[in-house]
Amino acid sequence: MYLMKDIVRDGDPVLRKRAAKVTFPLSEEDQEFAKRAMEYLEVSQDPELCKKYKLRAGVGLAAPQVGISKQMAAVLVPSLNEDDDQPSFKDVIINPVIVSESVQYGALTEGEGCLSVDKDVPGYVPRHDRITLRYQDVKGETHQLRLKNYPAIVCQHEIDHLHGVLFYDHINNDDPFKAPDDTIMIS
Ligand code: UDB
Ligand code: ZN
Predict the structure, then answer these.
(1) In this predicted model, what pLDDT tens digit does every residue of 32-46 receive, in sequence order?
(2) Atom 15 of ligand 1: nearest residue by CA position
(3) Where Fe cation is bound, by residue (predicted)?
(4) Is the previous residue joined to 87 through a cis bond, with omega within 30 degrees of 0?
(5) CB of 10 closer than 8 Å to CB of 166
(6) Of 69, 85, 95, 121, which has the fewest CB atoms closer than 10 Å, so is most exposed?
(7) Which of 91, 168, 89 shows the shortest CA–CA distance to 125?
(8) Strands (E), the chain
(9) Is the pTM of this model over 0.90?
């Protein structure tokens, strides 16, 4: 699995590049990314293992964040329901495209952070509240599904990484806690 030392930090040009499309069948390197990235997320979400390996509990990790400029990201959004053991979204999304998006914006009440950004950048990050996402999985199978609220925010954050965009690019410079009028707050 990846460790914090493997994660590229803000300032590295790879985080600002447009990542290349991935071709199938996956190369050895691409398969390794998929495996190591999902393992990072799983291990980091286990409080004991998270501490043991000195990780930050993560919900998504995009390939450019480990220096691979390709359109892949692992996403593991835990279930919001306590007695539900399956995650609300778990997959390695490859060549993802947002095929449609709601006019309605949503933003996390707590703002956002990033595994590649060590400092705290306060402010709302307005995103689309609902998206239709199309992507390929590691087998090359195409999926298309609708996501809303938190899982939609996480996928938009990860897809931004594939386009060289970081969360704070979306924060209003003059007033960080100002979001478009009809923004839903997601906690
Ligand atoms: C994160 N984690 O992984 F609801 F188990 C953030 C960090 C930057 C704080 C580590 C996070 O939101 N943790 C979390 C939330 C839960 C349940 C849980 C863990 N990312 C991913 C990232 O940087 N990907 O590139 C930042 C998120 C901010 C909004 C969406 C992604
Ligand atoms: Zn990030």
Answers:
(1) 999 999 999 999 999
(2) 59
(3) 114, 157, 161
(4) no
(5) yes
(6) 85
(7) 168
(8) 60-62, 72-77, 89-101, 105-108, 127-128, 130-136, 142-148, 183-186
(9) yes
**pLDDT of 59-83, one tens digit each?**
999 999 999 999 999 999 999 888 7
Task: Tell me, using a 6 A CB cutoff, whether residue 153 lines ligand 1.
Answer: yes
Distance between Cα 119 and ligand 2 center (Å): 12
How many angstroms separate the CA atoms of 25 and 7, rounded? Answer: 25
Label residue 18 exposed, middle or buried (CB < 10 Å: 0-12, 13-18, 19+): exposed
Q: What is 67-107 written as a DSSP string?
A: T--BSEEEEEE--SSTT--S-SEEEEEEEEEEEEE-SSEEE
CATH architecture of 4-186: Alpha-Beta Complex (3.90)
Measure the CA–CA gap between 82 and 170, rounded to whole angstroms.
31
Which residue type does 60 have? G
